[in-house]
Amino acid sequence: MYRAVIFDVDGTLVDSNDAHAHAWVQALAERGRRVEFSRVRPLIGMGSDKLLPQAAGLAADSPEGRAIAARRREIFQRDWIPRLQPTRGARELLEWLRDDRLMLYVASSANADELQPLLRVAGADKLIESTTSSDDASRSKPDPDIVTTCRRSGVRRLRARRSASRAPDRSPSTFVAPPTDRRPRRSAQARFRS
pTM (2 decimals)? Predict the structure, then answer.
């Protein structure tokens, strides 16, 4: 029996990938680094530690890299978050899963200060049990650190809920990959044992 689902936000719950790419392009251009949208867009989903070296040949922890990342965050929050829309059917899917008694988690490369506004755009801020952001992991996506941290947090919460119950649940903690349609399909499910 599945007990929880881990979602990403950008491109999954919120149609925000293009907005992130535009914010990166603008922040890089303001520092004199011309990088095409088409170069940045496929990198969205990675943290700045991976995106900046690939898009601009720049170390994210350099002074210029930190300045560009901070400026991108400002541009994204000021210019793009107010214009974002949820991914079609995202809220309904979350409500359906919650009503089916699954715990909902988010594991995102977004910074913590961007994550809550994105969840509000999706209408998910009151439906998500717990979130993990790039602030909670040492390496960003596509490395598994953010998802692993989220999964561990979820397993601890599931165990805490089980131990609070009088009848122990011996089933393994399991997480489901987000399905592409309203109903989860067996082929879209990924199982992890605790």
Answer: 0.74
Which residues, at least 6 apart from 66, have a Cβ–Cβ distance to it below 8 Å? Answer: 60
Cα–Cα distance for residue pair 112/181, rounded to 1 Å: 28
* Residues 112 and 183 grouped into a single domain: yes
In contact, 94 and 104? CB cutoff 8 Å: yes
Q: pLDDT tens across 9-20, in order?
A: 889 999 999 999
19 contacts 45 by C-beta, under 8 angstroms: no
How big is the CA angle at 137 (ends 52 and 83), to the nearest 5 degrees?
Answer: 60
Taking only the tens place, the pLDDT of each residue in 14-69 is 999 999 999 999 999 999 999 999 999 999 988 888 999 999 999 999 999 999 99
63 Cβ partners below 8 Å, 6+ apart?
A: none
Give the domain extent around 171. Answer: 4-14+86-188
Among candidate residues 58, 83, 108, the one where a domain is terminated: 83
183 contact partners, CB below 8 Å, separation of at least 6: none
